[in-house]
Design a protein that fits this description.
This protein is of the alpha/beta class. The protein has a single domain, classed as P-loop containing nucleotide triphosphate hydrolases (Rossmann fold), CATH 3.40.50. It has five helices and seven strands; from the N terminus they run E-E-H-E-E-H-E-H-E-H-E-H.
Length: 201
C-alpha cells in the first residue's frame, strides 16, 4: 500500500464524537516515549502529520487521520511515563478504554514496543487487557535501528516467551524504524490485506 493521501480529521476525548464515516480504524498506542508519532509520520509520508516532541506524553486526545480516503489511523495517548498528573492519567485511561470497548469501527490495535528494552510489566499488562476483552492487536517493535540485529531477535524472543505463558497463539508482529523506514511496507501491507478482506465480506 502506498499512502498518497493523509489528513488530520479531528481530536476529541469522547468516543461518541469520533467520526461517523464508519470506515475501518486502526489504533496505534504505546508507552509515551516509544516513538509513536515518528512511526505514524513515516507510515503516512508526512513529517509533521502527527506532532512529535522531546517531551513524552504529547498526545493527549483521540486523534483521527484519514488515509487514502479509505480508512482511519487513530493515534491514542501514550501510557507509562507521561509527565501528567494522576488525575489527567485517569482521564486518559477512561477515554482510551472507552474507545477500545465501544468503538465498533476499530478493526485492530497496534501496540508499540521499544525494542531496545526488556519486556516491561506495563506493556505485558496491556497485552493481557486487550486479550481479556478480545480486541485484535499486533505488536510493532520500534527503534530497530538503535540496536544490533542479533539483539533484535533476542528482544523479540524475550517478549514472546512472556506471552506464551498466557497465549496459545502469538499476535502478528512487525519490526520498524521510523528513521530508516524499516517495516513500513510490511505494516501497511498487513492493513491493506485486512481492508481487502473486509470488502470481500
Amino acid at each position: 500500500m502506498n499512502v498518497a493521501h493523509a489528513e488530520f480529521v479531528m481530536s476529541n476525548a469522547e468516543v461518541a464524537k469520533c467520526p461517523k464515516s464508519h470506515l475501518p480504524e486502526y489504533a496505534f498506542i504505546g508507552r509515551s516515549n516509544v516513538g509513536k508519532s515518528s512511526l505514524i509520520n513515516m507510515l503516512c509520508n508526512r513529517k509533521g502529520l502527527a506532532k512529535t516532541s522531546s517531551r513524552p506524553g504529547k498526545t493527549q486526545l483521540i486523534n483521527h487521520f484519514l488515509i487514502n480516503k479509505k480508512w482511519h489511523l487513530v493515534d491514542l495517548p501514550g501510557y507509562g511515563y507521561a509527565r501528567v498528573s494522576k488525575t489527567q492519567k485517569k482521564v486518559f485511561q477512561k477515554f482510551v478504554t472507552d474507545y477500545f470497548l465501544k468503538r465498533n469501527e476499530l478493526i485492530s490495535a497496534f501496540l508499540l514496543i521499544d525494542i531496545r528494552h526488556e519486556p516491561q510489566p506495563v506493556d505485558l499488562d496491556f497485552f493481557k487487557w486487550l486479550g481479556e476483552h478480545q480486541i485484535p492487536f499486533s505488536i510493532v517493535f520500534t527503534k530497530a535501528d538503535k540496536i544490533k540485529p542479533g539483539t533484535i531477535e533476542k528482544r523479540i524472543k524475550n517478549y514472546f516467551d512472556e506471552l506464551k505463558k498466557d497465549w496459545e497463539e502469538l499476535p502478528p508482529h512487525f519490526v520498524t524504524s521510523a528513521s530508516k523506514g524499516n517495516g513500513k511496507e510490511e505494516l501497511l501491507g498487513y492493513i491493506q490485506e485486512i481492508n481487502d478482506s473486509i470488502k470481500e465480506n
